[in-house]
Each structure stands twice: as C-alpha cells, then as structure tokens.
Design a protein that fits this description.
Blueprint: E1 5-11, E2 15-22, E3 27-34, H1 41-58, E4 65-72, H2 96-104, E5 108-112, H3 113-124, E6 133-138, E7 142-148, E8 151-152, H4 185-188, H5 190-203, H6 221-229, H7 233-257, E9 261-265, H8 273-285, E10 296-299, H9 306-316
Parallel strand pairs: 1-4, 4-5, 6-9, 9-10
Antiparallel strand pairs: 1-2, 2-3, 6-7, 7-8
Helix pairs in contact: 1-2, 3-9, 5-7, 6-7, 7-8
C-alpha cells in the first residue's frame, strides 16, 4: 500500500488529540494541542498542521497518509461543516473539512466527535459484536452516538443523536451552551458536575466539605471526585445527584432504540461506582417494564484518547470530496383549472 496510514483527529472542547493509525487500527503515535489556545480558526489549523507534521516526520509517515478523519462537536458528516460548535472558541459555521484538506493537501472526512467514538468502540472496543448500542461521552459536554442494526444513525441532515441536548429539567433548568435550558449536558458533563458543586456549596452553606478549601469558581469535576474518594458527604451527594439524572435519561433513551448496551467514555466515566451505582439504580427504577434488566452499562475498553481517534481515523480511509446537501426547491403551485 503506497499510503498505509490515516490520520485521526479528535477535537474536544479542551484538547485536540491526533494520531497516526495503520490499517489494522493500531495507533502508531499520537500527540495533542490545546483547542482553545487560538481564537482564530486559521491560527488553530496552522498549529495543528505544524504539530502533525512533526509527528509524521518523527514516525517516517510524511507522504504516507491516505486520508484524514476528524471527530468534532456538531460536525456534519454530509457537508464537512461544524454547524454550531457550542464548546469551541471559534464562530460557527466552520467549513472545517475543507480548511484542513486545503492545508494538508489530503482528503478529509468529518463527523460528530461522539459518533467517531462510537465507531472506534464498535470496531476496537467494548461494542465489538454489538449491533445496537448507544455511546455516551462524558467530557466537557455530553455527546452521543447511536448505532442501530450495525449502522450509525445520522438522520437526514447529519445531526441525529444529540442526546446530550435532551431536556432533563423542564422547569428552571440550567442554561446550556446550546442556548436551551435544562439540557442533560448542563448537569451530567464534567462542567455540569462543577456547576452542581457550586450550587450545593451555596445551598448547604453550613455543611462542612473539603471543597470549601478550593475557590468556588475554580472547582472541577476532578476536585469533586477527589473529595468523594476522601469520604466527603457533600461530594458523594453530587455524584448521587448526577448519576440519578443520567440514569433517568438512559431509561428514556432505551425506549427509543432498545440498545443492548450503553457505553460510557470520557473523564467523568472514570468515577466508577460513585457515578455508576446511582445511575444503574435510577435507570432500572424508571425503566419501562419490558426493558428492565436488559440494558448493560459498559465502560469504554479503549485508551482515553483512542476511541475518538480510532473512530475518526476510520473515516480517513473513505475520505473524499464533500457532498453538499441542497434542500429541495419548494414545489410550484399547480395552475388553477378552468
């Protein structure tokens, strides 16, 4: 094979991870840059290009890349455009596939970052052999990829499966980055957990907590985890609250697609039983009887960065010029009959 590798790029709200992947799905080498370092998209692509080229040169892969696959928030598989990247620092829409292809001189394919993670998990991880599952990524936001009968669900316009933006709090819900209020992402992402911590500390002002040793605006989900592991009751209650909301949402998702499993990926998923115990309890408590006990909760079997990188890289083998969706013209009214 004259070009035996593809490049997989996972663009997250905090970091952009990229890796060289061979035809067997082995990540030969990887690196990362800070996504939000540049507020101009062209400066970001320049840094991405420079760092990728260093990686290619160090691994004798210059001129050997068949295609580039990218997973990014709200990326449209059909058009190659990031339509509304709510956790990204650049104004959208962004024709990212075209911009990256022009910079590298290599064909590019792009999809939602959680869809890319689902593809990677289905090919190399916990979803191997599963034809019906839901991938949930718990990071800066809450992403999802839905696989039904072995096929990733894109919908007619490329945006199907935004489960992180289903409403879980109809009254007085938190404002989400997407502009709506009460979204799952506003409660069950890493940033959502930090928001819950700030709320709990204010509402339960007289309760001691290790989290009070940290400036309230600087608290992260990792701080909450560390406090919970140390036995802090308020921190444990934050995970109980988060897991309950997530489990209730999973019970609703199950009604839609009857998945064999829901697979969790991302930093927050590493919280273990702190999150999983209340999640499972709430899911089964709220599950429609016909689905009770049927849906497994699994953790990703891939390295933290590999799921999305491998999934994105799979797109690289099929990368080709983007096809723009043109909506059908409105029907012309029929002439009146005389």
């Amino acid at each position: 094979m004259s070009k035996p590798y593809v490049l997989g790029i996972d663009i997250g709200g905090t970091n952009t991870v990229f890796g060289i992947v061979d035809a067997r799905g082995v990540v030969l080498a990887s690196n990362s840059i800070k996504t939000a370092k540049h507020h101009n998209i062209n400066d970001y692509i320049d840094e991405l290009y420079n760092e990728v080229m260093k990686l290619l040169e160090a691994n004798d892969a210059v001129g050997k890349i068949h295609g580039i696959g990218i997973g990014a928030p709200n990326a449209n598989y059909f058009t190659g455009v990031i339509e509304d990247g709510v956790n990204l620092p650049w104004p959208t829409p962004i024709p990212l596939a075209q911009l990256v292809s022009d910079k590298f001189g290599i064909p590019v394919a792009i999809t939602n970052d959680a869809n890319a993670a689902a593809i990677g998990e289905m090919t190399y991880g916990a979803a191997r052999g599963l034809k019906d599952f839901i991938m949930i990524t718990l990071g800066t936001g809450v992403g999802s990829g839905i696989v039904i009968n072995g096929q990733l669900v894109y919908g007619h316009d490329g945006f199907a499966g935004e489960l992180g933006h289903t409403i879980v709090k109809r009254n007085n819900g938190r404002l989400c980055g997407c502009g709506r209020a009460g979204c799952l992402e506003a409660y069950c992402s890493a940033t959502g957990v930090a928001r819950t911590a700030r709320e709990f500390l204010e509402v339960r002002a007289n309760e001691p907590s290790l989290l009070r040793n940290i400036p309230i605006e600087a608290i992260t989900s990792k701080d909450v985890y560390d406090a919970a592991i140390a036995g802090d009751k308020l921190a444990k209650d934050i995970f109980e609250y988060t897991g309950q909301i997530l489990g209730e949402a999973f019970a609703d998702f199950t009604v839609f697609s009857s998945p064999e499993a829901i697979i969790l990926f991302g930093g927050l998923a590493k919280s273990g039983e702190l999150l999983l115990k209340p999640l499972r309890n709430a899911m089964e408590k709220n599950m429609m009887p016909i689905f009770k006990g049927k849906v497994k909760i699994l953790l990703s079997e891939l390295k933290e960065a590999d799921a999305a990188v491998l999934g994105a890289s799979a797109l690289g083998w099929e990368a080709k010029p983007m096809v723009t969706i043109v909506p059908p013209a409105p029907a012309t009214p029929a002439a009146p009959t005389v």
